[in-house]
Amino acid sequence: MIARTPEPPYYAVIFTSLRTDTEQDYAATAGRMLELAADQPGFLGVESARGADGLGITVSYWASEDDIRHWRVQAEHREAQRRGRADWYRAFRTRVAKVEREYGMG
Amino acid sequence: MIARTPEPPYYAVIFTSLRTDTEQDYAATAGRMLELAADQPGFLGVESARGADGLGITVSYWASEDDIRHWRVQAEHREAQRRGRADWYRAFRTRVAKVEREYGMG
To answer: What percent helix, strand, coil does chain A show, rounded to 5?
Structure first.
Protein backbone atom coordinates (compact mmCIF):
# COMPACT_ATOMS: atom_id res chain seq x y z
CA MET A 1 0.00 0.00 0.00
CA ILE A 2 2.94 2.29 0.72
CA ALA A 3 4.94 2.08 -2.52
CA ARG A 4 8.46 0.64 -2.31
CA THR A 5 10.34 3.04 -4.51
CA PRO A 6 14.08 3.04 -5.37
CA GLU A 7 16.67 5.61 -4.33
CA PRO A 8 15.73 9.06 -5.70
CA PRO A 9 15.76 10.70 -8.14
CA TYR A 10 12.57 9.43 -9.80
CA TYR A 11 9.27 11.06 -10.73
CA ALA A 12 5.84 11.36 -9.12
CA VAL A 13 2.48 12.17 -10.70
CA ILE A 14 0.19 13.61 -8.01
CA PHE A 15 -3.43 13.37 -9.16
CA THR A 16 -5.91 15.11 -6.82
CA SER A 17 -9.60 14.93 -7.65
CA LEU A 18 -13.18 15.54 -6.61
CA ARG A 19 -15.74 13.12 -8.06
CA THR A 20 -19.13 13.75 -9.58
CA ASP A 21 -22.05 11.51 -8.53
CA THR A 22 -21.61 9.42 -11.69
CA GLU A 23 -20.66 5.86 -10.74
CA GLN A 24 -21.11 4.25 -14.16
CA ASP A 25 -17.92 2.45 -15.26
CA TYR A 26 -15.84 4.38 -12.70
CA ALA A 27 -14.66 1.63 -10.36
CA ALA A 28 -13.99 -0.84 -13.17
CA THR A 29 -12.04 1.73 -15.17
CA ALA A 30 -10.05 2.93 -12.14
CA GLY A 31 -9.08 -0.67 -11.37
CA ARG A 32 -8.19 -1.33 -15.00
CA MET A 33 -6.01 1.81 -15.13
CA LEU A 34 -4.05 0.71 -12.05
CA GLU A 35 -3.47 -2.68 -13.69
CA LEU A 36 -2.49 -1.10 -17.02
CA ALA A 37 -0.19 1.49 -15.39
CA ALA A 38 1.66 -1.31 -13.59
CA ASP A 39 2.46 -2.86 -17.00
CA GLN A 40 3.98 0.33 -18.46
CA PRO A 41 7.73 0.88 -18.81
CA GLY A 42 9.20 2.78 -15.88
CA PHE A 43 6.29 2.21 -13.48
CA LEU A 44 7.61 2.14 -9.89
CA GLY A 45 4.47 2.02 -7.76
CA VAL A 46 1.23 3.77 -6.82
CA GLU A 47 -0.51 4.99 -3.67
CA SER A 48 -4.16 5.99 -3.56
CA ALA A 49 -6.65 7.25 -0.96
CA ARG A 50 -10.09 8.85 -1.09
CA GLY A 51 -11.38 10.42 2.11
CA ALA A 52 -14.89 10.63 3.50
CA ASP A 53 -15.05 14.28 2.31
CA GLY A 54 -14.68 13.15 -1.32
CA LEU A 55 -11.11 14.31 -1.96
CA GLY A 56 -9.03 11.66 -3.71
CA ILE A 57 -5.25 11.60 -4.04
CA THR A 58 -3.43 9.10 -6.25
CA VAL A 59 0.35 9.31 -6.52
CA SER A 60 2.06 7.18 -9.15
CA TYR A 61 5.84 6.87 -9.31
CA TRP A 62 7.90 6.60 -12.50
CA ALA A 63 11.53 6.16 -13.47
CA SER A 64 11.61 9.08 -15.93
CA GLU A 65 9.60 11.91 -17.47
CA ASP A 66 9.54 9.99 -20.75
CA ASP A 67 7.79 7.11 -19.01
CA ILE A 68 5.16 9.55 -17.73
CA ARG A 69 4.63 11.01 -21.22
CA HIS A 70 4.31 7.53 -22.67
CA TRP A 71 1.68 6.59 -20.08
CA ARG A 72 -0.21 9.85 -20.57
CA VAL A 73 -0.78 9.14 -24.27
CA GLN A 74 -1.39 5.38 -23.99
CA ALA A 75 -4.58 4.79 -26.04
CA GLU A 76 -6.76 3.13 -23.40
CA HIS A 77 -5.58 5.61 -20.75
CA ARG A 78 -6.42 8.53 -23.07
CA GLU A 79 -9.97 7.26 -23.41
CA ALA A 80 -10.21 6.92 -19.60
CA GLN A 81 -8.94 10.51 -19.24
CA ARG A 82 -11.65 11.66 -21.66
CA ARG A 83 -14.33 9.85 -19.63
CA GLY A 84 -12.86 11.33 -16.46
CA ARG A 85 -13.20 14.90 -17.71
CA ALA A 86 -16.68 14.27 -19.14
CA ASP A 87 -18.26 12.09 -16.47
CA TRP A 88 -16.38 11.23 -13.29
CA TYR A 89 -14.50 14.30 -12.05
CA ARG A 90 -15.87 17.68 -11.22
CA ALA A 91 -12.38 19.03 -10.59
CA PHE A 92 -8.86 17.65 -10.67
CA ARG A 93 -5.21 18.73 -10.68
CA THR A 94 -2.32 16.71 -12.04
CA ARG A 95 1.17 17.68 -10.86
CA VAL A 96 4.34 16.16 -12.23
CA ALA A 97 7.22 16.32 -9.77
CA LYS A 98 10.80 15.09 -9.46
CA VAL A 99 11.36 13.26 -6.16
CA GLU A 100 14.67 14.42 -4.74
CA ARG A 101 14.76 12.66 -1.39
CA GLU A 102 12.82 10.10 0.60
CA TYR A 103 12.87 8.81 4.16
CA GLY A 104 10.54 6.93 6.44
CA MET A 105 9.89 4.16 8.88
CA GLY A 106 8.46 0.66 8.62
CA MET B 1 -9.77 21.01 -0.77
CA ILE B 2 -7.80 20.89 -4.02
CA ALA B 3 -4.91 23.27 -3.29
CA ARG B 4 -4.66 26.39 -5.47
CA THR B 5 -0.96 26.47 -6.16
CA PRO B 6 1.00 29.02 -8.24
CA GLU B 7 2.77 28.38 -11.54
CA PRO B 8 5.50 25.74 -11.11
CA PRO B 9 8.23 25.32 -10.09
CA TYR B 10 7.47 24.84 -6.40
CA TYR B 11 7.92 21.92 -3.98
CA ALA B 12 5.72 19.13 -2.67
CA VAL B 13 6.10 16.99 0.45
CA ILE B 14 4.25 13.70 -0.10
CA PHE B 15 3.59 12.02 3.26
CA THR B 16 2.10 8.52 2.99
CA SER B 17 1.23 6.67 6.18
CA LEU B 18 -0.42 3.72 7.85
CA ARG B 19 -1.80 4.36 11.33
CA THR B 20 -1.58 2.33 14.49
CA ASP B 21 -4.73 1.87 16.59
CA THR B 22 -3.63 4.66 18.94
CA GLU B 23 -6.11 7.53 18.80
CA GLN B 24 -4.85 9.50 21.80
CA ASP B 25 -3.99 13.10 20.79
CA TYR B 26 -3.87 12.15 17.11
CA ALA B 27 -6.77 14.13 15.64
CA ALA B 28 -6.05 17.23 17.73
CA THR B 29 -2.37 17.16 16.82
CA ALA B 30 -3.06 16.55 13.12
CA GLY B 31 -5.42 19.53 13.08
CA ARG B 32 -2.94 21.69 14.96
CA MET B 33 -0.14 20.76 12.51
CA LEU B 34 -2.27 21.80 9.51
CA GLU B 35 -2.97 25.12 11.23
CA LEU B 36 0.69 25.62 12.15
CA ALA B 37 1.95 24.63 8.68
CA ALA B 38 -0.33 27.22 7.10
CA ASP B 39 1.42 29.92 9.19
CA GLN B 40 4.93 28.98 8.04
CA PRO B 41 6.89 30.97 5.45
CA GLY B 42 6.49 29.58 1.95
CA PHE B 43 3.41 27.44 2.65
CA LEU B 44 1.31 27.17 -0.54
CA GLY B 45 -1.41 24.67 0.38
CA VAL B 46 -2.19 21.13 1.50
CA GLU B 47 -4.31 18.19 0.35
CA SER B 48 -5.11 15.21 2.55
CA ALA B 49 -7.07 11.97 2.25
CA ARG B 50 -7.28 8.75 4.26
CA GLY B 51 -9.07 5.82 2.66
CA ALA B 52 -11.17 3.08 4.19
CA ASP B 53 -8.18 0.69 3.91
CA GLY B 54 -6.17 2.91 6.30
CA LEU B 55 -3.70 4.42 3.82
CA GLY B 56 -3.31 8.17 4.31
CA ILE B 57 -1.75 10.60 1.86
CA THR B 58 -1.05 14.23 2.76
CA VAL B 59 0.64 16.47 0.20
CA SER B 60 1.82 19.89 1.33
CA TYR B 61 3.12 22.46 -1.15
CA TRP B 62 5.96 24.92 -0.48
CA ALA B 63 7.70 27.73 -2.30
CA SER B 64 11.24 26.44 -1.71
CA GLU B 65 13.31 23.64 -0.20
CA ASP B 66 14.44 26.04 2.53
CA ASP B 67 10.82 26.52 3.57
CA ILE B 68 10.45 22.73 3.85
CA ARG B 69 13.62 22.44 5.96
CA HIS B 70 12.40 25.24 8.22
CA TRP B 71 9.03 23.50 8.73
CA ARG B 72 10.69 20.14 9.33
CA VAL B 73 12.67 21.48 12.31
CA GLN B 74 9.96 23.75 13.76
CA ALA B 75 9.88 22.88 17.48
CA GLU B 76 6.21 21.94 17.89
CA HIS B 77 6.29 20.02 14.60
CA ARG B 78 9.38 18.12 15.74
CA GLU B 79 7.56 16.98 18.85
CA ALA B 80 4.58 15.89 16.71
CA GLN B 81 6.97 13.92 14.45
CA ARG B 82 8.40 12.20 17.55
CA ARG B 83 4.90 11.24 18.72
CA GLY B 84 4.08 10.08 15.19
CA ARG B 85 7.02 7.67 15.12
CA ALA B 86 6.37 6.46 18.68
CA ASP B 87 2.58 6.26 18.78
CA TRP B 88 0.50 7.02 15.69
CA TYR B 89 2.16 5.52 12.63
CA ARG B 90 3.14 1.95 12.02
CA ALA B 91 4.78 2.91 8.72
CA PHE B 92 5.29 6.09 6.72
CA ARG B 93 7.26 7.52 3.80
CA THR B 94 8.07 11.18 3.26
CA ARG B 95 9.08 12.23 -0.25
CA VAL B 96 10.29 15.70 -1.14
CA ALA B 97 9.70 16.57 -4.80
CA LYS B 98 10.03 19.53 -7.12
CA VAL B 99 6.80 20.17 -9.03
CA GLU B 100 7.70 20.88 -12.64
CA ARG B 101 4.29 21.16 -14.29
CA GLU B 102 0.64 21.22 -13.37
CA TYR B 103 -2.64 21.07 -15.25
CA GLY B 104 -6.24 20.31 -14.47
CA MET B 105 -9.89 21.16 -14.68
CA GLY B 106 -12.34 22.94 -12.38
So the answer is: 35, 40, 25
